[in-house]
Amino acid sequence: MDRQELIDWVKRGPVRVTMSDGSTHVIPSLEWCLITPVSAHVLYRAEDGKLRTHYLSLVCMASVEQLETSEIL
Length: 73
What we know:
Layout: H1 3-11, E1 15-19, E2 24-27, E3 33-35, E4 39-45, E5 51-57, E6 61-66
Antiparallel strand pairs: 1-2, 1-6, 3-4, 4-5
């Protein structure tokens, strides 16, 4: 996965990223992430209610799938 490819996916709507370790992460929109040439930093709301980030290495992304907006609510 390269930077522009991930940006194009996220521009089309929310996506679920599966990492090579099997973990999955939802990117709701470009407003919730910063995509650099080597990684994506994705905001999420932790159980304590605070915003935190996941660091996702682009080279470790196994797959990306488009989600319906209703799937992330």
